[in-house]
Protein 1
Amino acid sequence: MTAVRTLLTAALATSLSACITPEPVTKIVEKEVIVTETVMVPQPTAPGPGDRMPTGRDVGVRSSVVAPHGAAATAHPLATQTAIDVLKAGGSAVDAAIAANAMLGLVEPTANGIGGDLFAIVWDPETQQLYGYEGSGRSPKGATLADIQAKADEYMDGEMIPFHGSASVTVPGTVDGWFALHEKFGKLPIADDLSPAITYAREGAPIPEVISYYWHMNQKRFQGSVESGALEEFDNATETYFSPPPREGALFKNPDLADTLSQIAEGGRDAFYKGELAERMDAYFTRIGGFLRYEDFASHTGNWIEPVCVTYRQDYKVCELPPSTQGIAALQMLQMLEKFDLRSMGYGSTDSIMAQVEAKRLAFADRAKGYADPDFAGIDPQMFIAEGYNAKRAELIDLSKPMPNVKAGLDFPAADKKLEDGDTTYLTVADENGMMVSLIQSNFAGMGSGLVADNMGFMFQDRGQLFSLDPAHPNVWEPGKRPFHTIIPAFAFKKDMPGCQVRAEPIEQACPFEPWLSFGLMGGGMQPQGHVQVILNLVDFDMGLQEAGDAARWEHRGGCEPTGKYDDPACEADIGKVLLESGIPTDTRAELEARGVEVECCQANGGGYQAIMRDFESGAYIAATELRKDGIASGY
């Protein structure tokens, strides 16, 4: 009996990362009596990783990169290498970011490409300013809500806009974003920035493990839409991407994309939005019965916007882009979490996760009703982070149980579970002059809409799927309007306390905030949740940069979304569920369930993470990348 209990105890002790389920176990009671009862035992686990040296970093799977001159972190090794090559050739961090993004559109079309949108935050050391860019495309001007509703009625039971096909397509904003960023901050000719991607598109680009996995998954996703007729045309996508989808280790060629990028390199942004390429896209949508037309491309423009920032724990300032993105949700969560002593609670503890999840639910309730294109909604983003607002909201949080009903905390003029998934690429680059770029780019869900224009080599995004169909909602589909956006770059400042030259009292006020961290996370609605977890890992839990990204994450799903009805009591009463990665301790999972939280192990959308941090003492960059993706961080 003692031996049986000892073995069971040892098994449990070595399986903190295993999902625990009830199983019948036979055990000996006294001497000859045998009974069967149900106890909790660990499921068999796959072999784990090896051991690292005891450096004091308990979570990270590898070391961060330290670089004195420049650094880059992307989701593909070739894109990171391309960025470093551009920096060494005299390009700015923006040149390098454009080059890396163009390469990612070739080697990671499962997440991004010139058929999608782009958002960026740039720290410019020359002007000592933080700049935001919103490269978001708009809906077709010639379509109506009735046109889009008809597509929803035919293919989605009227509840939502189809993910695949022309109803979800908005004007791609990426190319415009490249040229806007380059005009302000570029040093090399943009043709030089695009040259590496063009060369590899013709000669063959290497496809690694995770990207290959998603590539094959996307082929399966499209089949249902092809069979239902929601996807008006799929032959071009099949020829470009699925003949067959590349395996790990394959070299993928895309000569059509090489030709398209070459025309952009030679003719500038107008080649894409007003020239022969725009005419070709117009002809394609006309042929398949889609909605976009030449005028939609010709009238497109992105926007320089002011990032929105909040102070956290006095010595840190975190910055995001305002709506129509969801970045401000991360700031709302941080303001709520100021109330809690997370350091004492500890990383991965039940109280810590409970506080974070409930803060997320409150922030996302505002997100559901108030995050929309400000040109149409007229909602001031500062209202979401007004002094005292989120502190007051945090008073609703009870660590012993989930809130039974969560409503928006503000009244907005005049929101389904479709945002959990999102395939996006995030990259960051820093140069020797101190410029830091935080850039995110996406086709939204999967590879995008499934539509590839004739001989152009890229897929159009399905970002328009994120509009609401409710006429009362600020995010309702309207002609010429930007949809709600999930993709968000982030940036953070820190007070360099040891480096302060002014010794006024109090010292916290004398020290200015210094540019510290360019970072981001991928994955639909996970992004603001992930941004908060990274900041907490660095600030409250004293993790290193690589460790902060490698640490196991939680993800909450449920509640209202900006894509549903404006008033929906059902989603307000939806407590949702918390998905945990396997590294969250089993006793935390059990205690969350005891407090009334529905928990799933181990299906969290951990997202993908990249970051570059400035070391104030040495002046070097520290760069980290994502264990959940294929990429690397590098520097020189």
Protein 2
Amino acid sequence: MCGIAGFIDLNRSSDAKRLERIARKMGDAQNMRGPDGSGQWSDPEWGVGLDHRRLAIIDLTEEGVQPMHSKSGRYVTVYNGEIYNYRDLRAELEQSEGFPGWRGHSDTEVMLEAVEQWGFEEALKRFSGMFAIAIWDRKEHYLLLARDRMGEKPLYYSMQGGNFLFGSELKALMGYKKYFNREVDRDSLAAYLRYCYVPGPRTIFKDTFSLMPGTWTCLRPDGELTEPRPYWSLLDCAREAENKIFTAPDEAIVDTLEDLLLKVIEREMISDVPLGAFLSGGVDSSLIVALMQQCALAPVKTFTIGFDDEAYNEAKDAKAVAKHIGTEHTELYVSPQDALDIIPQIPQIWDQPFSDSSQIPTHLVSRMTREHVTVSLSGDGGDELFAGYNRHVRGCSLWHKLENVPAPLRKIGARMISNISPQSWNKVFKMYGPFLPPALQMRLPGQKLHKLADVMGASSASDYYRDLTSIWLNPEAVVRNATEFRGPFQQPNSQPPQDNLTAWMQFMDAANYMVDDILTKVDRAAMGISLETRAPFLDHEIVEFSQRLPMHLRINNGQGKHILREILYKYVPQEMIERPKMGFGVPIDSWLRGPLRGWAEELLAPDRLDREGYFNTGHVRLAWNEHMTGIKDNQYKIWSVLMFQSWCEKWEIR
């Protein structure tokens, strides 16, 4: 895991010293991605400057240092990530006629020789891993860029006048201070307010983009950037799977997935540095850890953080699972102050506005984990691929009920729910909780009922899903002079059919929310303290397998991730796992009324909002006042604005 950056002077007016100086500054801005070493390379004839920051994981010797040249000298690369099947590819390449031999044993060297032997796109199709790759072709004078299939590793790029910039993080591009245009894209800002992240391929800045997962592009010698083209597509995978749903007996499908997961996990445990795993005690992380232990020769190192607030604490459950599996478990209970201390660092760690508040505990657990290991496996992807979110289970059945109710009646019902504050609903549920059926026993019921009211007016299944996943329902009204940007998967022709609403929601979550929220959150939280994370569920073989599952192996008896549970219960007792889904959060709602109130009031002051000119002050202040009085729980709305405001302050955005 590393950080990469590059600068291309298309006018070819820079000498080697200037090219390497600019590339080094870009790399310095994201140095935490790779504190174990740095290197630059330039080609002044073609205006190329490359920077690499190394977090040494495989081949810790000098033979693994980047920028790295292919044996022929044709290709030079800076590369971020891991190609897990590099040993298989290495063996295959060794059989090639006239193969020149190896310098070391890094996956970077294998990647370069694969490109030399098979060509760029064909090599990409053979890689199993997570990566962002930049290769300069010294023969054809092309810059080649690619990103892994599911988007685990980030890659940003921008054309700035006569210069082309790219980097693992936006802060690398902002490191080119003198010329990088920091103008906020208001259409992207509106999309950010809806989702709490900026959907790719857009970023918060005008004329700056993220390369989409599973695609590659090429910068030609004349400065033309080709349209990114897919070498693998989740959409194609989902469409093809519709006619290839597994028909084998359930037991055979479960066993096949278990074997596949064991193969992938064993491969992803390859490391020349200490390795462990995050463990929340839920289905996904518990299954990953249980299978890791099957592959390991010693107890797996596992890590959990806990909170004294029981509504947010998973540490007890994780500890019980760890004890049963037999891991070497470390837990750390953190105070509210520990979490609050992270907030000033957020704009530096997430260098474009990002307001999923679980970023705070994610960074805390990463920081604690990094004290013991350099690589940590996680259960990310389990919910999206195997139907683990409430919207996949209860949400779909709710929509099928709602669509049969006349719209006027739905709107009346929504008003009735909204007229009672979340706190009052919580009291009602607490009072009658023991008498309620399990389906109505939930955490934070007031918040969930108000969310239900928000979606009851939807006129279609796609609008219903959009509202379910929205923070602000009307972001164009909140951001001045904005037309909300809609991502590529917001177009019907870029989606699978809605015949099966659960499968459609799963696709939308995996293509959007998982990439731009979950994976962005984990990458920045972990790389901000130089920790590599790996997500076995996102191996493309697992992804392709998941798309072919019959629905009863996804959802069974009103419960998602059925097939994962069937595997997990071979290793962990069912009663140890079965409990309401908690999520990984912090009490932002009460913090805003308490220790964060002064900070928030300063950032949301009406004269400041008016002066800065991004938001319609009335909408923001109404949301703030409703939250302060308890009329509504607007924590996520307020947090999204605060994260933008603090980001502007940190990066001096005017």
Protein 3
Amino acid sequence: MRYSVPRSLSPSPVRRDPRESKGRSTYGLNLVNYSDSDDSSDSLEDTDSTSDSEVEAPPEPPLSPSHKLRPKATPEQRHVAETIAAIRLRTRHHDPYEEWEKQTRKDAFRIARKDHAALQSKLLSERDKSHTQEERRLAAIHTRQLAEVEGMLSSLKIQQQKEEDTLKRTWEERDKALWARIDAGIKVEEDKVRVKLEAERKVREEAERKRLEEEARKNAEEERKRKEQEEIKRAADEKERLRVEQEKRQQEEERRRAQDEQATADGRKTIGLTTAGEDWRTARSILMTIKNNTMKPIKTDKARRSMWGEYRRKITPKIGQLTNDSNSIRDITMFIQSQIMLPNPPHPPMLYTGLCSSLAKAILLQAETEVTAEKKAALPLAQLTHALLENLPSFPEVFFAKLVQRCGPWAIPSVLPTTDVTGEPWKDDDERAKAMGYRRSVEDNVPREPVGEYMLRVAGIMRVYFAVLKLPPNNGQPLNPLFQMPRLWVWLARLMGSERMLESPVAAQLIYTALDVLGSFALQVWGHQWVKLLELVYAGATAGYSADNKLIGGSSAEGIAARSRLKMEVERIMAGR
């Protein structure tokens, strides 16, 4: 902002020489000596300065001689004086526009505060009004909902009361019916007791009558015996004489029969045949020997038990890994032979026998689980068993003994004798069932497994056995006679000759299993003779095998199903001739 003042009149009509104004300030101040501070102050206070270059300073009177004698101010002093004069001028200047602007701001601020206060009051009033309306609306809604809830509770209470009344009536009717049944049961029991007492009375009367009759009969019998005693006594000598003669004849017959049996036994031994009883006793003796002379010493000795357990734990996984693949069968067979059964150096005899027992048990358990579920699983298991029977010493005898243990006398077949191989009778039914091959049931109230499970389990094991009979020798040396093809004929002939065993449903299932595995193959081997045996089997399954026309397998549901499968299998073999 620029300020200007009117030029003052010159005190003299004559302008001073411009050279005289060299010492003057551009603000219109006289150049004075700062040593005279009072004069300079008065001169600055009385003179209005301006920054406008167009304003000229008024002429000054000529200096007096005394002023001319004063020394001139230095440029620094002039600069300081000019600066002070400018500051004083600036501080004393009054600007109306600025005053108007300040006043305008104050008025605008006052009006704005007034409007803001009015607006705030209006907003608060409207908010209170809306809050009041909202509270009224919510109160109305609450009142309506409260009425609805009370109505709903009232209806629920009425419904609950109705349900309670219905339930109460139901319980009363149930109690009446229950007590009626109780009274009826009590009456029935009373009638039973009354009938029982009446029956007991009649039994006592009948017993008393019979006692009297028995006493009379005994008296008459005693009288008759007394009369006959003399006749008996007279005939005693004659009878004794006849008895002595009869005993002599019987002894002679027994001696001849023993000679004949001995000759027959010698002939059977010569050609390698044994009876069913001999086979069972041999297998049972081997089994008892393994149990008492092999496994017990192994399990009681810590070192032997540890070594036996180490090899036994290698057998079970290998048997479980068996598949219907020639390479797999060969690898597992070589591993069991070289790594487990016949290592270098060889096992002690006791440990080897124990491992043979464990190996046979593992194979039979695998047959129980796998072959029972899938018939095709019997072939690889039979190939492995056949290879082990060829290459492992003493394994055939141990395997057949374990087979008899798991299947009972059905592996021979033979009727279980009344005494054990030791000559002692069986202790109880559990021991006899165990010798038959039955396992204990998982149910506590059932002492042994059901016949159906036993039949399927034995059939699975025997399927592997029959498959072994079918396989030819690999190294040119025949297997043990117990595992050769003629054993099928012996097995089937023994079973068909035992009427007691043919009554069981197991017989029908095992005959079907044997024919399913070896029926067609045996027809090629034995021809017409095998056809005759099949005719005998078919007749036993259709017409009966005894004088009273009993059928193979009996009349149970399992026997009927197995007999049906047996007839269809015989028909299939005969149709494929």
